[in-house]
Amino acid sequence: MEFLLELVVSVLIVLGGFFALVGSVGMVKLPDLLTRLHAPTKATTLGVGGALAASMVFFAGFEGDLSIHEVLITAFLFLTAPISAHFIAKAHLHEHAELRDGLPPTGRAQGWSTFDSLPDPDDEDDGDDARAAHH
Amino acid sequence: MITHALNFGFFALSLAVLLNLWRLLRGPSLMDRVLAVDTMVINIIALIILFGIQQRTTIFFEAALLFAMFGFISTVAYCRFVLRGDVIE
Amino acid sequence: MSLVLIVLLPFIGALFPALMIRAGRSACAASTLVFTLLAFALLMSNAPAVFRGEVVTASWDWLPALGLQASFFLDGLGLFFAGLILGIGMLIIVYARFYLAKDDPMGVFYTYLLLFQGAMVGVVLSDNILLLLVFWELTSLSSFLLIGYWKHLPEGRQGARMALTVTGAGGLAMIAGMLILGDIAGSYNLTDILHSKEAIQASPLYLPALVLILAGCFTKSAQFPFHFWLPHAMAAPTPVSAYLHSATMVKAGLFLMARMWPVLAGTTEWFYLVATTGLVTMLVAAGIALFKDDLKGLLAYSTVSHLGLVTMLLGFGTPLAAVAAVFHILNHATFKAALFMNAGIVDHEAGTRDIRRLGGLLQLMPVTATMAMVAGASMAGLPPFNGFISKEMMLHEAVDTVWLGNGWIVAALATLAACFSVAYSFRYVVHVFFGPRRSDYPHKPHDPPAGMWLPPALLVVLVVAIGLFPDTVAGPLVAVVARAVTGGALMDYHLALWHGVTPALGLSAVAVVVGLAALAAYARVRAAWQAGPHPEAKAMFDAFIAVAETLAQRMTHGVHNGSLQRYLAFALTAFTAVGFAAFFNAPHAAGTRELLPAHPAAIVAWVLLVGGCALTVALFRRRVLAVLVAGTVGLIVCVAFIYLSAPDLALTQISVEVATVILILLALYFLPKQGPASSSVRADPVRHLRDGVLAVIAGLGMAGASWAMLTRDGTSLSHYYLENSVSGGGGTNVVNVILVDFRGFDTFGEITVLGIAALTIYALLDGALFGRVGRRLSAWSPDLPQSADRHPLIMVVATRVMLPLAMLVGAYIFLRGHNQPGGGFIAALVVSIALIMQYMASGFGWAAHRVKVNYHAMIGSGVLVAAATGAGAMVLDQPFLTSTFGHFHLPLVGEFELASAMAFDTGVFLTVVGAVMLALANLSRMGRWTSPGTINKSAMDVDPSAPPHKEQA
Amino acid sequence: MNHVLILPILVPAVVGALLVMAARYDRVLARVFSVTSMVAMVAIALGLFVIASDGSVRTYALGAWPAPFGIVLALDRLSALMLLLGAVLGLGVLLYAINGWDLRGKHFHPLYQFQLMGINGAFLTGDFFNLFVFFEILLIASYGLMVHGGGGLRVKAGVQYVVTNLVGSSVFLIAVGMIYSVTGTLNMADLALKVPQVPAADQALLQTGAVLLLLVFAVKAALVPVHFWLPGTYANAPGPVAALFAIMTKVGAYSIIRLYVLAFGAEAGAAAWLAAPWLLPAALVTLVLGMIGVLAARSLGQMASFAVIGSMGLLLSTVAVFTEQATAAALYYLIHSTLAAGTLFLIADLVAERRGLLRDRLVPAARIAQGGLIATLFFVAAIAITGMPPLSGFVGKLLVLDAVRASTHATWMWSLILATSLIAIVGFSRGGSLLFWKPHALPPGPVAAHRADALPFVAVGGLLACLALLTVFAGPVHAWLELAAAQLYAPAGYIEAVLGTAGGLR
Amino acid sequence: MEFLVASAIGVMTAAGIYLVLRTRTFPVVIGLSLLTYATNLFLFATGRLAINQPPVISADAAAYIDPLPQALVLTAIVISFGMTAVVVVMALRAYLETGNDHVDLPGDASPEASDDDWKQRGRKQTAGPGAKKGGVRA
Amino acid sequence: MAARPPVTDTRSRFERWLPHPWLTLMLVLLWMLLLNEFSVGGLLVGFVLAIVISRLTSQFWPERPPIKSYRKALSYLGLVAWDVVVANLQVTRLILFRPAARLDVRWVVLPLELRSPEAITVLAGTITMTPGTVSCDLSADGRSLLVHCLDAPDTEEAVRQMKDRYEARLKEIFP
Ligand code: NA
Ligand code: NA
After folding, report:
1. Same-domain status, A14 and A62
2. How far is CA F37 from CA A54, C818, D57, F32, in A?
3. Are residues A67 and A45 in the same domain?
4. Do E138 and A120 count as a contact with CB atoms less than 8 A apart?
5. What is the ipTM, given to two decimal places?
6. β-pair partners for C403
7. Quick check: pTM over 0.90?
8. Which class would CATH give F70-173?
9. Which of C862, D180, D192, D364 pairs as cysteine with C910 (C-beta 3.0–4.6 A)?
10. Number of Cβ pairs closer than 8 Å across C and E?
């Protein structure tokens, strides 16, 4: 049983380390930001997930504490990683305006939100608001 | 066995962090560097977790949690800065 | 006590004229006169005692530790001078009433005059030489005001400053001299000092003390080479010149030499310093006086010359010379004050004081002319006037004096001076009053009103009276004064007009003849004079001051040139150099502590940190990048804290890190995103190299100090905290217990700092919304292209999910902080940053509208909660911040702990949230200000689930 | 339990917080709060002064934790004196400021209160890390006050001020760290016991820390070469703020006197009188540079600033003699120079407020409203600050000259003190003549009207009256100061009082 | 490990000082924060180094690191956070007021310190989609 | 401020205190995760906190996220978790063994049928975390998603897979 636990923990650690490394290798190896983005969002997140799972099992198995709070970090990372990636991509597109021409059309009347806004700004009706002191 | 696994984990993650540093040095664009730091933070979280296993302590959990939270927030802040200039508008 | 009153009366009186001016000029003058008269009467009431040979004293311990006593004494010398000051003062007061013009602020004048008078009386009545110094400097100050009285005249202002500078410098030297003297004598009281002649003259410090004191006397009495200020002080109104620069202030130096004569005189040093200075002054000034065209200038140099005469006499060091000196002081005061007033009358009535524009006034101003002739003759040293008698005495002493083995040189030079004296005196009389009447006087000259001529007339009467009956009129006074000056040395002298045919009489005759001849040949003499060089002392002085000012400015503004880099370079160099010097000056031995092995991951972290630092330095001009990379350095420091058993530090550091990044990015919106080329290494490699060298040395120093520290064992207080944390502080997280309990006071201060920081930030930003900066901001547009979506949908959703999560984490960190890593501060940052995320995602307008909390109030209430928690203990008569805690048991819930430290931590929490939010929210308000058209009402740019083009709440 | 000791810190903290919360919108209320608090602080300080006058050291163990483990406040004569001085100056300046200056930006009053909290805390604390905290409080409040009202130059000078002090704060921590690393204590009294026991091997670290700390205090005290922040800061700060800052340099001086007599004094073994060789030359150079600056100044504010630098040089050179007598003299001069400098800055502001864009620059311009009165006030203040009689500057200078007589460097000190006095006299007469006399030489024009409010003049007059009292009562004041100095030079009483502080209930 | 920490402190100090000596407010701020890291790490190190000995009382802990320096560093971090915030905003205000972010006061020392690049920038209309949108009002 | 009416609260007391009951429960669960041990006291505190926090934050999330089926949501989570692992293996293979030049990098546009912002966000997140795709942008009207594919020879297929595998399921979870 202990061996099994050890095995599980070890495998998780190794997998975690491996995926994290892969993510970082990808980030170095891949040619441009958008492709690089694929590596850490997935691999690194999984890598840290592996480490967290290892920790969970380890503390539950060896220290006798039911250690589940690692779930929280994992969940948090899985929630935030794609959003980070999304914004990094957007910022990259914005920084490199030349990429705009390479983008496919949205199929809608409006373009991509990084470049185009809605024609009708529906939310700029009270300029006084900014002048109103914010205490 | 766990010790060896940990050693491998430390090795892999350290290497990963160094690769992140390389990307941070090289860039070329700001977003590349933001991505590098973002990834570095995640790798560091993994390192912290492994360190916790090695030291048999859960005392670093909150640090890992805050690293995750704040890493995300600062990444978003940088993105917003690039996108809009004004982080809060 | 009356002595104190004599000194005080003028000062008390000084309050009145300035206030009474509305009551009229005469009332003003009258009040001045009354006080002077009162003082004079008091003085006179003491006179009989003095003449009886008594010394009247009054004393009050002012600063006993220093030996500074407000003690006064009145002996013959004091009586003489005080009488002179107050007596002539009264005349001047009357004279000035008529002299000053309607638009001259008369009240101010009399105030100044009384201040001066009080100071002078103080000088001559002081028993304590430190007190004397006080009054001494006061005379400089009040005379500064009087000389500069006509503020509109540049000569007045410059003359005042010059006088103050020269006499002030002398005064400062005298301070040193007096302190030395007092130290030698063991007391600062004159009465003691005057009995310490042997000790003083035997002291190795005698010469420095003498030189320093003489510096004061010589400057005050306008002795060569410090004589130059006096003629320029003549820019003052004539009453001032008459009072200060003939009768009183310039005599203060003489007074002091006379005062100190018993202890300081009689040595070789004294003789050569004082007599020589006096002789040279007498000669040089007399020579210059002859060629002055300004009446007051002529009189001024004449005064200098006569002061030199007295100085020389005092310098001779013989009792008889001292008597002559005293007598001449009296005589000079009478004729010179009369002449100054006379010159003032001429100026007042004829409209000019320029001798070249005058002449022939005899018929027009007969009274004035008569007075001038009498006083002038006295000044020339002609019999039967008082000036003659004292000059004779002087020549008599001069003949007896041997200077560097030379028996005739003093007499010869003194006679030469007397020649000049005769010449300029006659020039004054002849060139002004005799000769043809002119048609081009600026005014139509006539004799002045009685109020103006009576005061000098009174003096002229004295001139004659003393001249005719010296022993009767002045004898007793001179006797009592001389006794005071010489310390009671026995001497045989006789004041009389006629001493028989003596060498002095012969020299006098020579002087008259040569003087008259010189005047007869004035044109040629003057031509000869003008052919020679005349170093103009004022020009030299001005040049000196100008050079000093220029140097001072170069130095000051050259060093303090507004360059922060320079300031910091100086400071950092100082820190580094001093650090190294202190370290290597003290014994040091290498540490013996067992070292920790380096974990490979730690080495990697080290590489990251060094790389981050290097990259920050390399990229410092690309600002966003610099922030990002410096942030990674901070991140590594956090990791180091984790690795090195400091979880609380790591939590705090990472939270602060993010808040700082957001803050900096908010500010960077307005700032240039790229440092200018001029700040690049290429633009100024030398400076970068210099800074780099300094930085590396300082870095080496810090590394060395750290190494020295880390490699040795040390003692600490930790055991106490570890032992008492649970039992006394109720928490297992010792760091937190230290923060909120053991050293909670630090934390109380620390949150106050944060609160103040936020208030400052608020004030700074709020102030930027108005005025010039506000207009600039309104006209501002972003300097980088902006992406189109301001409030992206995905981000809004993400932050909405994150907010409750983060608040939960915040609560968790807050509640467990006392026992596990965490606490109020970190919790506050977590919550604030989560809130800020809402601002980031949905915009300032939207988010601010939903935050119902007033951040100012939050800061205030946080500080108050912390203070109230602390003060709660005071109610139980425990010290501020004394904590308490207890374990409680509730069914179901089980055991839990409540600690007052939690309430304190709540204060911390509130303050920090308030501070961070106030700062960040207001910084973001700035951004709104620049583009007010973009206030959003909805949380996201577009909500696809809402009907198109319809407002969403 | 005598809670009065905490009040000088607690009262401004609470009032400051209340001002932030409640009295933010109501200027009258804010002024009432602020002035009441200042009056209370004067009263408290007077009370503490009386309490301290019996010569014993009172302590207050915060949180009831005994020293050296907890933070202890300690009140001796020196602390009481500094508290009283700060409160009196603070009240005077506040009375001046509530005539309109306080409305030129936000949060003047809370910042003012917090400023005093920091200053009072620095004077009371017996713990040198807590001293750091109070330094930071007074600094950060001073940042806010410094830029109060805004304006390009002011804010830029503010940046310089802040940056310099941030560097200083870093070094403060480094120095504290070095000292802690070899002595293991943060309590000044405990430090005094530990320093003599520091082995030779650790002396280098200890002394480096101590000397660096000295240099940090020197930054606050504006000693060359770390004085550069002062002229720009003071000359650009709002007048009343600069006036209040007159006490801030004294915080540096106070800290030097406190720590280097207590912990690095006669008993400190290898580190005995550590500060003297560093302090004296620096102070003398400061004296010279400051007074030369007076001569070179381009504005009245600048002149006052350099006069402050010069006076700090004089003060600290006297301190550097490290004898009881010299310290007593230095303390007398400290009181004098604080009040004199504060007054002078207020007068500079009176002038600046009346001269439009020219402010207080030393260039002739039209006459100003209430010019005669202001000129008189200036004359008196200048007399005080240049050390001319009859005011306390002269008495102070005499005391200093007398006290340093025994020093091996007496000749130098005397020469420099006297020579620089002359430079100051020349500088101030030049400035006064330019500002108050020369306008009379210009063609008379209309004098710009200016509100002739009494309050500012009352404030200035009140401070000058303090100088006059200081002069008249020089005897008793100095006698008191001699006792204060004697108390400093017999540190056993202080140490015993602090370390003997009972830990309350525990 | 001690060497790593000591040298890291040195490196951060050096980088911080170099940046603090730059001519613009921004690098100065960055330099200050590096200097702060160095200072905090140094102050922390006065408690000497220890691994896995956090100062949290627990039954199974063998030893504890000196907690006092940590508490001091915490205070120092918080204070320097406040200070940094103030200096950043003050630098911003100075830039808005004077139109340049030079650290020097305008004068002879640095002619650049009197430039006003804000003025020129205010006139320049930046072409950006968002900026354009800001001007359109419904 | 005058231009804008105050944010009026027309909700019932229940809605006000439990604006998002599921969120509140979620928070309680998270709280227990954070505590890392079970105790009644902890649970009580958790409930109090969850209620207070959801009350405090409800202003920022005024519209309830309507989830139609929590069962489907859970199964969706499982699906995604599995896909993440698969995605990683794929990406690992591409990173380690495929020369960069041979990657078939493409942009793909995913027209969205989902309308709820929450749903769109979840979809975008899912796409990023799963095989070879990163969602990079939304169209300005929020109805198309721009997806970057690391190696997608067949864009049609990619779009179809994303729609079928994720969007269809999300449509059953979110309205
Ligand atoms: Na603290
Ligand atoms: Na804590």
Report:
1. yes
2. 18, 18, 52, 7
3. yes
4. yes
5. 0.94
6. C406
7. yes
8. alpha beta
9. C862
10. 394
